[in-house]
Design goal:
It is flat, with a radius of gyration of 21 Å. It folds into two domains: about 5-85, no CATH class; about 105-140. It is an all-alpha fold and about 140 residues long. The protein contains six helices and no strands. Helix 2 (about 35-40) runs antiparallel to helix 3 (about 45-75). The chain starts with a helix and ends with a helix.
Length: about 140
């Protein structure tokens, strides 16, 4: 597994999987299973009930777990340095090499993009939360 793409993928999976498992487990623990029973009593097959009832409800939390896993995996330069072979050049490894050897404009551009995307993501989340709160209060009135 050393010096292989398979080893690199397995290592990143081992690091990111707990974030997804914990998030999805917590989501399923708080999921109202009466919704599945109601769908079943109305004639929905188990697969159909899962796809139409459960998945839309838990999808945002599954996505947040996947996002945590991605960010953690993206931040792990050490795994790429020790497990990957010389042919596997991940972006974090390339950035680390670029910073270590010479500062290139590419590293600055990638860092700028990361900051811009993070800022846009946070601003979008704040905007969506405020919009949802306004809609919620408008429906009450």
């Amino acid at each position: 597994m050393l010096n292989s793409l398979t080893g690199l993928v397995l290592a990143h999976t081992a690091i990111g999987a707990p974030f997804v498992v914990i998030t999805v487990t917590a989501t399923l623990a708080s999921f109202d299973h009466n919704l599945m029973r109601a769908a079943s009593s109305l004639g929905a097959a188990p697969v159909e009930a899962t796809l139409r009832i459960m998945l839309p409800i838990i999808a945002p939390r599954v996505a947040s777990g996947a996002l945590f896993a991605f960010v953690t995996s993206f931040d792990e330069v050490v795994i790429a340095l020790f497990i990957a072979g010389s042919e596997e050049r991940t972006l974090p490894r390339q950035m680390w090499s670029g910073v270590r050897e010479t500062l290139s404009p590419t590293i600055a551009a990638v860092a700028t993009l990361l900051i811009v995307f993070s800022t846009l993501f946070l601003v979008t989340i704040q905007w969506l939360q405020r919009r949802a709160k306004r809609q919620k209060t408008a429906h009450r009135d």
